[in-house]
């Protein structure tokens, strides 16, 4: 195996199938890289299976820190012909979970599908989908490509180690993240620093600081996910109403199981009085090892959650809404919260 030869063969193959408009299948085997594989708009690329087609950037072959193993960039025009990728394994050059780059990154694209892709040691991120194509992400980025990536799915993928598993940023819109497994991320299992109308469904995170982390958002549904061995199960913030000119709203956190050493669900991470979420439904979750702790959320509906006997629901004076029918204690209740009753401590039953 030679990284220069493998790189040339794979890149030529990708270029040829993009030109011909056909589905390309990468043979089973262990392929080595020494620089990024550049994808093309409209490409359809499959491997022979995530444990049979393995594409690796060996540390000794990679000559720079900021890397992406496989990527789709954007210049003056968006990628509008769709991308389909499936059934292969990417192994990063950075084996120590620092913040260098994403194993797989797609920028500025409408219509994409990622299925049964395994990413190992992706460093910064295993899979990153970005709604812009200019530079690195900052909260103050200005770009013509903001909110340009729409209509996609990430399904049945596996991310192992790195700083985070799966990330949607730059105003990504209308993406389904379903049935993925993320293991041993240093920071976040699934991270949405800026996304609209996306669904996180039946994913499993094991080992991370935060299982699911959401910041500037609208219309996000977190449904039937599991996060174990995490410090916090689901953490969320919101738009800054003055700087961003928008207020986050419509967050559903329903039917999940969070096993956390600190908070199970909280808006206290990077929150402030100017950075809050309207209309938050926290319902029918199974919560172990940490409290529901809200500081800034407005018009919350917290019902039907099941605790472990040692956790509670805690709301600060700025939180408004209603709470009821939880198998958890209600502590430090905000005066703007309506207690519907039937909140109880399991240890008393």
What is the secondary structure topology, with strand pairs?
Blueprint: H1 3-20, E1 23-25, E2 29-33, E3 37-38, E4 44-46, E5 53-57, E6 70-72, E7 83-91, E8 102-107, E9 110-120, E10 125-130, E11 150-155, E12 158-160, E13 164-169, E14 172-178, E15 181-183, E16 188-196, E17 199-201, E18 204-218, E19 221-223, E20 226-236, E21 248-254, E22 257-260, E23 265-266, E24 277-283, E25 286-288, E26 292-294, E27 298-303, E28 312-315, E29 321-324, E30 329-331, E31 337-341
Parallel strand pairs: 1-4, 2-5, 3-6, 4-7, 5-7, 6-8, 7-9, 8-10, 9-11, 9-12, 10-13, 11-14, 12-15, 13-16, 14-16, 14-17, 15-18, 16-18, 17-19, 18-20, 19-21, 20-22, 20-23, 21-24, 22-25, 23-26, 24-27, 26-28, 27-29, 28-30, 29-31
Write up what this structure looks like:
The chain has one helix spanning 3-20, and strands at 23-25, 29-33, 37-38, 44-46, 53-57, 70-72, 83-91, 102-107, 110-120, 125-130, 150-155, 158-160, 164-169, 172-178, 181-183, 188-196, 199-201, 204-218, 221-223, 226-236, 248-254, 257-260, 265-266, 277-283, 286-288, 292-294, 298-303, 312-315, 321-324, 329-331, 337-341. The relative contact order is 0.07. The protein is built from one helix and 31 strands. The protein has a seven-stranded parallel β-barrel with strand order 9-11-14-16-18-15-12. The termini are far apart. By secondary structure, it is mainly beta. The model is unreliable at 134-141 (pLDDT under 50).
Number of helices: 1
SS class: mainly beta
Main sheet properties: 7 strands, parallel, barrel
In the predicted model, the low-confidence regions spanning at least 5 consecutive residues are: 134-141
Proportion in β-strands? over 45%
- Helical amount among residues, as a percent range? under 10%
Number of strands: 31
Give the N-to-C terminal Cα separation: 64 Å
Radius of gyration: 21 Å
Overall average residue pLDDT? 89
């Amino acid at each position: 195996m030679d990284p220069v030869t493998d790189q040339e063969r794979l890149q030529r193959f990708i270029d040829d199938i993009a030109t011909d408009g056909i589905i390309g299948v990468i043979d089973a085997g262990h392929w080595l890289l020494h620089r990024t594989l550049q994808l093309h708009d409209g490409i359809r690329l499959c491997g022979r299976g995530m444990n049979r087609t393995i594409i690796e950037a060996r540390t000794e072959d990679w000559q720079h820190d900021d890397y992406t193993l496989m990527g789709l960039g954007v210049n003056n025009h968006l990628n509008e012909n769709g991308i389909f990728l499936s059934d292969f394994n990417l192994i990063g050059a950075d084996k120590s979970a620092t913040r260098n780059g994403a194993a797989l990154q797609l920028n500025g694209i409408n219509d994409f599908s990622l299925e049964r892709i395994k990413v190992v040691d992706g460093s910064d991120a295993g899979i990153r989908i970005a709604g812009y194509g200019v530079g690195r992400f900052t909260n103050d980025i200005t770009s013509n490509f903001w909110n340009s990536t729409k209509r996609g799915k990430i399904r049945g993928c596996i991310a192992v180690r790195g700083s985070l598993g799966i990330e949607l940023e730059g105003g990504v819109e209308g993406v389904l993240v379903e049935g993925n497994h993320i293991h041993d991320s240093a920071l976040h299992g699934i991270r949405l620093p800026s996304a609209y109308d996306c669904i996180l469904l039946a994913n499993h995170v094991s080992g991370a600081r935060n299982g699911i982390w959401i910041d500037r958002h609208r219309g996000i549904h977190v449904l039937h996910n599991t996060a174990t061995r995490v410090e916090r199960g689901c953490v969320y913030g919101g738009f800054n109403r003055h700087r961003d000119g928008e207020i986050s709203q419509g967050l559903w956190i329903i039917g999940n199981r969070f096993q956390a050493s600190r908070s199970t669900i909280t808006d206290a991470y990077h929150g402030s009085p100017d950075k809050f979420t309207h209309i938050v439904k926290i319902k029918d979750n199974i919560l172990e090892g940490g409290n529901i702790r809200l500081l800034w959320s407005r018009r919350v509906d917290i019902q039907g959650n099941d605790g472990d006997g040692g956790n509670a629901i805690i709301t600060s004076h700025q939180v408004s809404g209603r709470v009821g029918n939880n198998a958890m204690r209600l502590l430090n209740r905000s005066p703007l919260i309506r207690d519907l009753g039937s909140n109880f401590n399991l240890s008393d039953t």
